[in-house]
Amino acid sequence: MVFDWLGVVIFFVVFLVLICTLKVSFDFYLIKKKGYMDYALLIEKYNLERNKNHLNTQKVKLLSDFNNSILERLLFITKELISFQNLIFGK
Amino acid sequence: MKKTVLSFLFVLVSFHCISQNNLKIIDSLKLVIESKPNDSIKIKTYSDLCWYYGRISNDSAFHYGNLALKLSQKTNNVVGEAQAYNDLGIIHTYSSNFDESIKLYRKALKIRKTINDSMGIASIYNKLCYAYHKKFEMDSCLTYNLKALDIYTALGSKRHIFLSKGNVAAVYESMNQYDNALKVHFETLEMSKDISDSLGLSNIYLNIGNTYLSKKDTLKGLSYYDKCIKIGELNGYDNTLAIVYSDYGIILEGQKKYKEALKFYQKSYQLSKKIDADVELSEALLNLGNINTITGNYNDAKAKLYEGLKLSKKTQAKDNELKAYELLLHYYSKRKNTDSILHYYSAHKKLNSSIYSNRVTEEIAEVQERYNTAEREKEILTQRADIAEKELNLNKKNTQLIGLGVLAIVLSVLGYLLFSQQKLKNRQLQKEKELSEALIKIETQNRLQEQRLRISRDLHDNIGAQLTFIISSIENLQYGFKIKNEKLTNKLSNISGFTKETIYELRDTIWAMNKNAISLEDLETRISNFIDKADVSASSIQFDFKIDKAISKNIKFTSVEGMNIYRIIQEAVNNAIKYSEAKTVLVNVFKKDQSVQIEIQDDGKGFDLNMQKDGNGLNNIKKRAQDIDALLSITSSENKGTSIILQL
């Protein structure tokens, strides 16, 4: 290849653009990496919350069953107490 | 006959112009020899003596030349040896012994080639050209001249290029190619003006004049002769003048101005004799002989013509010899001597045919072609240079185009990268946004659930306290009032027992809720406690609780799973206590086919699965198993006990 001043200028511009391209490529890589890291953090947090939600859901379900059970039991106790009262007062 | 001057002569003759000084120089050189200098100076001095004796005394010149040669050979001084051969060759040329001079020139050439003396080699070529020209071997003459021209061109020596071109023109002249000769003459004319060479200029004017006369253009020819004579007389160029006077005389003779022609011939004769130029002298003699023949002075004519012929033969100047035969033929025709006429006619014919034989003509043509080829090669070189320049420009443009192409590609890549980068950013933001929204949603749900759980815990605490209060109140009633009524006492006992069960259930639930995960170990402890209590409350039944050691105790269950497993075992054991009339109840936890199985087995009365409608106990067991996605298998038959297997 034979260079005149214009050729030199063109190749200098090519060199500069090439450097820009490399910088953008490197930035691209960094953005991608940072994005993955941020997303991974969020996913981790989300998984924790989901796990927590699962546990809470289980507990709520347990409570719900228990609440039903205790309600029946309380009603039964109330009924028995009323029955006891009736026995006392000879009804 | 016109005489064209070879450039070689310019060099040889130049010192004749100062021949008066030669003796003084020779004396001073001899003084140098007497001072006994070293060998190299001695060789140089011998050579110089040979040179300066050249036209004064051939014998002395040969003597000093041979001394220079011997001393050079003895001291291995190759430069001196080549110079000695060269000087001796020149002396032989002066003596018209061209064959010997060619031999010596070749020896000098061989040495100069070994020491790469370009200028010396070119000088030898030039002298060889002159010698061959004198022998009328034009092909060799032109070949050596072209070789010399090549070297001078390579060295960029304008003066020598000028001399060599002059020789080319002289050869053209000899070949009767006057247009070509004129073309080269005018080229050399321009060059001589550039290099301010008055001797060269005078000779070129002479040669141009000759050529024009050959073309029968007398006016132009004479005008160039006049120019030549003017410069020659001004600068004392005797050799040139000797020739031009002779040629001028020929023209005047042609114009029948015999007296004037005779004057010019005599001038030429005197100058030739003065400078000892045999060739020119022979021509002058022949011209004088001819004019005497024409004017009827036959005695003088015969003497001059024979003298001219003799000198022509001696100098091997064949053109002069031919002229001599021609003039003798003319002389004898005037004298009406038939024998002599026939003799000289035969000699003339013989010499003429030998000079202009076909072979010579062909060789000359061949050499001319070679010269033309050389010229064409130069043109080709020039064209190549142009092409190379164009290629260079083309390469530059190609480089620019390649650069622009690369720039376009790199810009495209950059654009694509920027676009991709933006796209990636958007995609990442979108994904993060979606995930953040989902996270916020689930966090909100979690907060709500936690709130519900907190409220439930508060409620259960309150319920627990109230249930405790109920139990306490019932026990106060039982023991404080000493109730005798059995029915009332049973009733109170039932209410108290049921309330206690409710409190236990509440505690179990709180236990389960306080753990995020229930391990098998936790469950084992809980079940053991429960079995122990059952053992106390139902002393007639033997309880056994086993866990396979192969099962890892780190197995985790969720609170719902753990609670439901515990409740299923509790329910099954309670059923066995209440209805089976069993003697032993076995709770076995073991591993089968990569799954954990829990078996509650009794040896009681059993029941018919088909006949038995599912009571609350069995229903609860099935429902709980379904809630935790566990497989439940109940096997029972009358008097063969019952087995409930829960596969997790």
TrEMBL record, chain A:
<keyword id="KW-0472">Membrane</keyword>
<feature type="transmembrane region" description="Helical">
    <location>
        <begin position="6"/>
        <end position="31"/>
    </location>
</feature>
<keyword id="KW-0812">Transmembrane</keyword>
<protein>
    <submittedName>
        <fullName>Uncharacterized protein</fullName>
    </submittedName>
</protein>
<keyword id="KW-1133">Transmembrane helix</keyword>
TrEMBL record, chain B:
<keyword id="KW-0472">Membrane</keyword>
<keyword id="KW-0547">Nucleotide-binding</keyword>
<keyword id="KW-0597">Phosphoprotein</keyword>
<dbReference type="InterPro" id="IPR036890">
    <property type="entry name" value="HATPase_C_sf"/>
</dbReference>
<keyword id="KW-0175">Coiled coil</keyword>
<dbReference type="Pfam" id="PF13424">
    <property type="entry name" value="TPR_12"/>
</dbReference>
<dbReference type="GO" id="GO:0046983">
    <property type="term" value="F:protein dimerization activity"/>
</dbReference>
<dbReference type="GO" id="GO:0016020">
    <property type="term" value="C:membrane"/>
</dbReference>
<keyword id="KW-0902">Two-component regulatory system</keyword>
<dbReference type="InterPro" id="IPR011990">
    <property type="entry name" value="TPR-like_helical_dom_sf"/>
</dbReference>
<dbReference type="GO" id="GO:0000155">
    <property type="term" value="F:phosphorelay sensor kinase activity"/>
</dbReference>
<dbReference type="InterPro" id="IPR005467">
    <property type="entry name" value="His_kinase_dom"/>
</dbReference>
<protein>
    <recommendedName>
        <fullName>histidine kinase</fullName>
        <ecNumber>2.7.13.3</ecNumber>
    </recommendedName>
</protein>
<feature type="repeat" description="TPR">
    <location>
        <begin position="202"/>
        <end position="235"/>
    </location>
</feature>
<dbReference type="Pfam" id="PF13374">
    <property type="entry name" value="TPR_10"/>
</dbReference>
<keyword id="KW-0418">Kinase</keyword>
<keyword id="KW-0808">Transferase</keyword>
<dbReference type="GO" id="GO:0005524">
    <property type="term" value="F:ATP binding"/>
</dbReference>
<feature type="coiled-coil region">
    <location>
        <begin position="357"/>
        <end position="398"/>
    </location>
</feature>
<dbReference type="InterPro" id="IPR050482">
    <property type="entry name" value="Sensor_HK_TwoCompSys"/>
</dbReference>
<dbReference type="Pfam" id="PF02518">
    <property type="entry name" value="HATPase_c"/>
</dbReference>
<dbReference type="InterPro" id="IPR019734">
    <property type="entry name" value="TPR_rpt"/>
</dbReference>
